[in-house]
Amino acid sequence: MDFRLSEDQTTVVALARGAFERRSDPLRTAGIEATADRFDRQLWQELADSGVLGLAVPEDQGGIGLGMAEFAPALLEQGRTLGMVPLWETVVLGVLPIARYGDEKQRDTWLRRVAEGTAVLTAALEQPGQVPLHATDSGDGPRLTGVSPGVPGGHLADAVVVPARTTGGTVELFLVPTDLPGVTRHRVERTDRGIATDLELVDVPAERLGAGPEEDRLEWLLRRAWVGLAAIQLGVSQASVRQAADYVAQRHQFGVPLATFQAVAHQAANCHIDTEAMEVTFWNALWRLETGRDATAAVHVAKWWAADAGDRVARTVQHLHGGLGADITYPIHRYMLWTTQLANTLGSAAWHLHRIGGHVAGGAA
């Protein structure tokens, strides 16, 4: 496999890294964490102005018209800097399904606004394998009822992509603007100091995402959501290992750098190996998705490595920082918080390992 970035990907890295590094220093992040919405609106607008938010938006709706393979490096950069913006939520959970399954009106209404930085999107997917919302048809279109917990970025979202079970037993995707009567959003504090919402719908009119190819649309969306999470976690782990390496190289004990001690070097080496494994499984899953190959197992493998190895790396990095690792005024602890949140979003490591086992055994997990 060729791991060199394409010209488009290299450009995306430069654009995203510039925006995130300018706006995501530890002091600024601490300030955003203290706000009610936990949303860096200046960074969000900079991502829009630089074209990052419009990468996956079709050209007809004011975007650049690239795919997830080109957008994913922006998620890595967010992970490296811990930028407090709903990038994965809006682009992966919102833009991608609307661009693929939305009709012309839906695409024009929402995607152009995302590219301009004036809309936030998300999806109600926090319980993979479960569909707690139900759709009925009252004659004037579908209406949704139910509660979907832990919707990421739901407090900011202008619209939510919602999977719901129809009266016929099938699962379809719907689009629900959040300003409609019957929509209630209950805020929940997340481990990473972000905000999620328990989304409650009571007989809410919804728009069916019914255009595009006939396929399992929820599975299509979940696979890209898992790979997007793996991308963010890869960035988180790579940045935390880099910070740990810098710290043990500068911190002296007994007159020599901590990095010269064999036990320290071995732990750092294990972290490096884990991040390498996370990287290869992430790119393999993304490559399979974007080239139309079978990615059934690959997406679960990528998410399992991100959750399992990511947790291992975060704990080791905390340990290598000694007492500073327990000091919440020092920024390294944020990587642990983000890792814990990411590891348990859309399925834990054990959940994904169970799916991998079912695939290997040749049966449904």
Question: What secondary-structure arrangement, pairings included, does this model have?
Answer:
Elements: H1 7-23, H2 26-33, H3 41-49, H4 68-81, H5 87-101, H6 104-116, E1 121-123, E2 134-137, E3 142-152, E4 159-165, E5 171-177, E6 183-189, E7 195-205, E8 207-208, H7 217-250, E9 252-253, E10 256-257, H8 262-290, H9 296-320, H10 333-343, H11 349-361
Parallel strand pairs: 1-4
Antiparallel strand pairs: 2-3, 3-7, 4-5, 5-8, 6-7, 9-10
Notes on the structure:
With 365 residues, this protein is of the alpha+beta class. It folds into 3 domains: 7-120, Acyl-CoA dehydrogenase/oxidase, N-terminal domain (Butyryl-Coa Dehydrogenase, subunit A, domain 1, Orthogonal Bundle), CATH 1.10.540; 123-208, Butyryl-CoA Dehydrogenase, subunit A, domain 2 (Beta Barrel), CATH 2.40.110; 217-361, Butyryl-CoA Dehydrogenase, subunit A, domain 3 (Up-down Bundle), CATH 1.20.140. The chain is built from 11 helices and 10 strands. The chain has helices at residues 7-23, 26-33, 41-49, 68-81, 87-101, 104-116, 217-250, 262-290, 296-320, 333-343, 349-361; strands spanning 121-123, 134-137, 142-152, 159-165, 171-177, 183-189, 195-205, 207-208, 252-253, 256-257. The strands form 3 sheets. Strands 1-4-5-8 form a 4-stranded mixed β-sheet, covered by helices on one side. A 4-stranded antiparallel β-sheet has the order 2-3-7-6, with no helix packed on it. Strands 9-10 form a two-stranded antiparallel ribbon. A hairpin with a 4-residue loop joins strand 2 (134-137) and strand 3 (142-152). Helix 1 (7-23) runs parallel beside helix 4 (68-81), helix 5 packs antiparallel against helix 6 (104-116) and helix 7 packs antiparallel against helix 10. The longest helix is centred in the middle third of the chain and has 34 residues, at 217-250. The protein is globular.
